[in-house]
């Protein structure tokens, strides 16, 4: 079902007034984690002003250490909903386990499946039975084939609205957090009709490289970007080093508007 041969026309996914998969690239931005009302509302306002299309923010966080901040949970979702009310931006947040799926779906416009859950087949099937778009991030060490098979789990349960997200893979390189595999963009375009966006924040792990890789992703034909931004990255409870400040984000958006290649 994910294959081009099955569905030659590119899939476009509508979320409110936003269309993902064309005609124009969309930018999803927001903090790694929702931390407080002030933080998310301030960020949402800037994302909106800079031309972002959707607001992101983690409420249930998949942290490598059990002792790290695990997210605000439902409180975080409520704050996201409040930010949506204030700005009109649709919101996206990660769902980590089947128990919380209904709760997350109640608040968000797009369900995010994180890299660590790309092969959580039980969860994939459950989101496949939801009537809500799903952003499926590529697994830490997943091949493109495995990733498309995970999309297939969602599609085969009846949910046609899957957006793929390249977020970097594990390689021997350690200077960057991950290696952003931009090969995946033309490869997915060739193999599938599903939209693909790129997350240069997790792909690089360093805010300084985010703008260059955002341009590269759009040049490669990505349908959009997902970028982490924070009003005070040095105080962020997660992923501060890869988060753009609000002013860096807005400067990047101006650059991207001038840069946007024709598809
Ligand atoms: C995130 O988007 O904050 C996140 C945890 O991403 P990933 O699943 O790609 O690591
Ligand atoms: Mn993050």
TrEMBL record:
* GO biological process per UniProt: aromatic amino acid family biosynthetic process
Q: What part of the full protein is here?
A: 71 to 333 of 339
Where on the tree of life does the source sit, at the highest rank?
Bacteria
Q: Gene name on record? A: aroF
Location of the DAHP synthetase I/KDSA domain: 17-253
Q: Name one GO molecular function term.
A: aldehyde-lyase activity
What keywords appear on the UniProt entry?
Answer: Transferase
The protein's name in its UniProt record: 3-deoxy-7-phosphoheptulonate synthase
């Amino acid at each position: 079902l994910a294959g081009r041969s099955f569905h030659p026309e590119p899939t476009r996914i509508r979320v409110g007034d936003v269309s993902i998969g064309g005609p124009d690239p969309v930018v999803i931005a927001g903090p790694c984690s929702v931390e407080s009302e002030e933080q998310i509302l301030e960020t949402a306002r800037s994302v909106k002003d800079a031309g972002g299309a959707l607001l992101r923010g983690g409420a249930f966080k998949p942290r490598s250490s059990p002792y790290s901040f695990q997210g605000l949970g439902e409180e975080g979702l409520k704050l996201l909903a409040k930010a949506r009310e204030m700005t009109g931006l649709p919101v996206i947040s990660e769902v980590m386990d089947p128990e919380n799926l209904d709760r997350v779906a109640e608040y968000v416009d797009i369900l995010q499946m994180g890299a660590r859950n790309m092969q959580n087949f039980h969860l994939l099937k459950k989101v496949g039975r939801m009537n809500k778009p799903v952003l499926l991030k590529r697994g830490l060490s997943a091949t493109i084939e495995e990733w498309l098979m995970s999309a297939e789990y969602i599609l085969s349960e009846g949910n046609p609205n899957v957006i793929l997200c390249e977020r970097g893979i594990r390689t021997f390189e350690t200077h960057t957090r991950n290696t952003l595999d931009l090969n995946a963009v033309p490869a997915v375009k060739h193999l599938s009709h599903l939209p693909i966006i790129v997350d240069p924040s997790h792909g690089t792990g360093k805010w300084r490289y985010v703008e260059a890789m955002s341009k590269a992703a759009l040049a490669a034909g990505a349908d959009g970007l997902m970028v982490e931004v924070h009003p005070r990255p040095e105080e962020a409870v997660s992923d501060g080093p890869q988060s753009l400040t609000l002013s860096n984000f807005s400067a990047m958006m101006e650059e991207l508007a001038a840069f946007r290649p024709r598809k």
